[in-house]
Design goal:
Layout lengths: L1 H15 L5 E6 L2 H7 L7 E10 L3 E4 L3 H8 L4 E11 L4 E10 L1
Antiparallel strand pairs: 1-4, 2-3, 2-5, 4-5
Amino acid sequence: MKIFSRFFVFAPLLVMSGCIWTDVTAPLNPDEQMKHRQSIQPTKGGRACSYAILGVVAFGDHSLGKAVRAGGITTVSSVDQTTSGVPFLFSGKRCTVVEGN
């Protein structure tokens, strides 16, 4: 019985150990970006972020439009999305990063 109780205590910890911190950057809709990609050298960048705390409080705006306005961009070259935080606490930050001219 002791073995089962230890298993149920340590198994979830082992499973969650890979999810303690997340920091990922990924292109937003990469197939669509490659189809419409313009061959320009980006000179400007814009970022817009939103935040979540314990899955109860969420605030901010990580929309594409806000990132474009923040960077003063008129021609978009690429759009990426970054996510960082602690998944099992439902806390973290999500940002949209835009490059262009």
